[in-house]
């Protein structure tokens, strides 16, 4: 069983109100020195079978077609190494 | 300028209806072989200054106190390597 992680983030040019809200809250809570915050989604997919190029291609297709809205979001697909947290 | 990533995921024992909805949709859309999906949040924080142990400790504190709800969520803090996407 292997884990593939799909990270979906708003494109840099798209306004991110959730991230901005976090960024503005940080100094009030005593955390300085953080100049920007972006908030996105993380999907952890458990695959049965080997994570070969074909499996990753299918996951990229799934990410593109319905995990991310590629008009406003970028996504990355990566295999999480064994034991990585 | 360095980027620190905070991943926030529901604890394994907590029901994840968003992830389940994605998992159930996948076979209908023609993607088989995915046995489990968990959906969480990803925060990208841009720091000014060095990312030393003190800075990471502050970010862990911020993550624990208000990025994650540690009753139901786990979080991880990591420095994103230069040039990593």
Automatic annotation (TrEMBL), chains A, B:
Cited Gene3D superfamilies: Phosphoribosylformylglycinamidine synthase subunit PurS (3.30.1280.10)
Enzyme Commission identifier(s): 6.3.5.3
Catalytic reaction annotation: N(2)-formyl-N(1)-(5-phospho-beta-D-ribosyl)glycinamide + L-glutamine + ATP + H2O = 2-formamido-N(1)-(5-O-phospho-beta-D-ribosyl)acetamidine + L-glutamate + ADP + phosphate + H(+)
Signal peptide: none
Keywords: ATP-binding, Cytoplasm, Ligase, Nucleotide-binding, Purine biosynthesis
Pathway(s): Purine metabolism; IMP biosynthesis via de novo pathway; 5-amino-1-(5-phospho-D-ribosyl)imidazole from N(2)-formyl-N(1)-(5-phospho-D-ribosyl)glycinamide: step 1/2
InterPro entries the UniProt entry points to: PurS, PurS-like_sf
GO biological process, one term: 'de novo' IMP biosynthetic process
Superkingdom field: Bacteria
Annotated GO MF terms: ATP binding; phosphoribosylformylglycinamidine synthase activity
GO CC list: cytoplasm
Enzyme class: ligase
Listed NCBIfam families: phosphoribosylformylglycinamidine synthase subunit PurS (TIGR00302), PRK05974.1 (NF004630)
Family: Belongs to the PurS family.
Record HAMAP family: PurS
Subunit structure: Part of the FGAM synthase complex composed of 1 PurL, 1 PurQ and 2 PurS subunits.
Job description of the protein: Part of the phosphoribosylformylglycinamidine synthase complex involved in the purines biosynthetic pathway. Catalyzes the ATP-dependent conversion of formylglycinamide ribonucleotide (FGAR) and glutamine to yield formylglycinamidine ribonucleotide (FGAM) and glutamate. The FGAM synthase complex is composed of three subunits. PurQ produces an ammonia molecule by converting glutamine to glutamate. PurL transfers the ammonia molecule to FGAR to form FGAM in an ATP-dependent manner.
UniProt name for this protein: Phosphoribosylformylglycinamidine synthase subunit PurS
Organism of derivation: Embleya hyalina
Gene label: purS
């Amino acid at each position: 069983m292997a884990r593939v992680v799909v990270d979906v983030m708003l494109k840099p040019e798209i306004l991110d109100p959730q991230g901005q809200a976090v960024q503005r809250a940080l100094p009030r809570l005593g955390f300085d020195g953080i100049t920007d915050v972006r908030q996105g989604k993380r999907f952890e997919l458990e695959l049965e079978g080997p994570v070969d190029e074909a499996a990753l291609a299918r996951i990229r297709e799934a990410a593109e077609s319905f995990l991310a809205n590629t008009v406003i979001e970028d996504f990355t697909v990566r295999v999480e190494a064994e034991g990585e947290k």
